[in-house]
Amino acid sequence: MLQFPRPFPTKEKDEIKIIDVAAGTGLTGVELNKLGFTSIDALDISQEMLNEAEKKNVYKRFICTQLGDQRTEIQTGENDALTCVNGLGNNHIPPTALEEMCRIVSKGKKHVLF
């Protein structure tokens, strides 16, 4: 199996706070949980999608908001990492949201955008 270096050498996986942007039904959260990450928040514009994600039992908090050029309720640097899988592009999260996505992750930490 392919092995990667530990992304956060000073923290255990269960201590790493991840925000899953455009969480949808929670598939990314499920995969992160399988890897041992347990402190995951879900963010999505659709409450219906967040309701589906909640059924997966892998998220701590559910944030229903639109990312764009407005600041969210999330504290600056609150997260160690951010994932956004299939969330960017036409009719999805606009490029103006990238600044907010950077703000909510600790400086020097990880962003994974697909």
From TrEMBL:
One of its GO terms (molecular function) is methyltransferase activity. Pfam families: Methyltransf_25. The keyword Methyltransferase applies. InterPro entries: Methyltransf_25, SAM-dependent_MTases_sf. Keywords: Methyltransferase, Transferase. Residues 18-108 form the Methyltransferase domain. Transmembrane segments: none annotated. GO terms for biological process: methylation. This is UbiE/COQ5 methyltransferase. The gene is WBSCR27_16.
